[in-house]
Amino acid sequence: MFNFSQGIRENKEISNLLDPKSKDFIARNYQEFKPDKDALTKILSQTKQTNTDELQPPPWNPDKYKTWSDYRNSKEYKKYLKQKEQ
């Protein structure tokens, strides 16, 4: 938003501000941004498990579950769902 407003104040063409091929593109600094896909996995794996009497889902293990789908289809998670229903 800031880059767009700044471009308008500098009398730049709106079409150039919105064109990814233009040098005035408002998100040119973000085009090469690649989020770390394992960052959330790492954070989740490092969190401590709480000791409560409540039924908790199995802990996320990035070495064991490569995707969310793998986790949801794991034996441990299915067992958790069955226990949760009871």
Provide an overview of this structure.
By secondary structure, the chain is mainly α. It folds into two domains: 33 residues, no CATH class; 49 residues, no CATH class. It contains five helices and no strands. The chain is rod-shaped, with a radius of gyration of 23 Å. The chain starts with a helix and ends with a helix.
* Count of extended strands: 0
The coarse silhouette is rod-shaped
Q: Structural class, please?
A: mainly alpha
Rg on CA atoms, Å: 23 Å
Helical residue percent band: 40-55%
Secondary-structure element order, N to C: HHHHH
Question: Major β-sheet, in short?
Answer: none
Return the average pLDDT rounded to an integer. Answer: 80
Count of all domains: 2
Unreliable spans:
none
Terminal Cα span = 50 Å
Beta-strand percentage range: under 5%
- Structure annotation, total helices: 5
Task: Sum up the structure in keywords.
mainly alpha, 0% strand
Outline the fold blueprint:
Elements lengths: L1 H8 L4 H5 L18 H10 L21 H5 L2 H11 L1
